Amino acid sequence: MADLPDPVTIGVIVGPHGVRGTVRVRPSGSGDHLRDGISPQVAGVRRKILASRPTPKGFLLELEGVGDRPGAASLKGEPLLLDRSELDSPEEGEFYVGDLVGLTAMDEAGERIGEVKETFETAAHEVLVIRTGGEELFVPFTMEHVPTLDLAGRSLVVRPPE
């Protein structure tokens, strides 16, 4: 990743689709960056997105240099990466969900609970995976469960579900 000083995952290849090298991709966030003409790094190689089609479960992408099912299958599990400088700028008050990873999770009394290790999307909302010692805590990313977010201070306040 030498050419990506600040890599951001825009999606993950979940498998092949068909026989012509199309890949199924689960987006990270909205999937806005999974569009024609973008050239994410996949398995250490920049690959231009030649075609992108949204589906109910993600996106189908045709990537430069991937022309058959075995080639597509070999990329299963690989993230699609862009450098942060290549991302569309978020609007005022907006941020990328990936920016939550690494934040310190605190309770309402200011005690450290753990660290956000990853996020994943459900039909209803994003879910934060917070590592607390050797355990994982799953917290819905809603105003009810995350009343305070301080990106500059690298922390958030969480109210874990019962």
Automatic annotation (TrEMBL):
Its main location: cytoplasm. One of its GO terms (cellular component) is ribosome. GO terms for biological process: ribosomal small subunit biogenesis; rRNA processing. It comes from the Bacteria. One of its GO terms (molecular function) is ribosome binding. It is found in: Cytoplasm. Residues 99-162 form the Ribosome maturation factor RimM PRC barrel domain. Transmembrane segments: none annotated. An accessory protein needed during the final step in the assembly of 30S ribosomal subunit, possibly for assembly of the head region. Essential for efficient processing of 16S rRNA. May be needed both before and after RbfA during the maturation of 16S rRNA. It has affinity for free ribosomal 30S subunits but not for 70S ribosomes. The PRC barrel domain binds ribosomal protein uS19. Binds ribosomal protein uS19. Belongs to the RimM family. This is Ribosome maturation factor RimM. It comes from Rubrobacter tropicus.
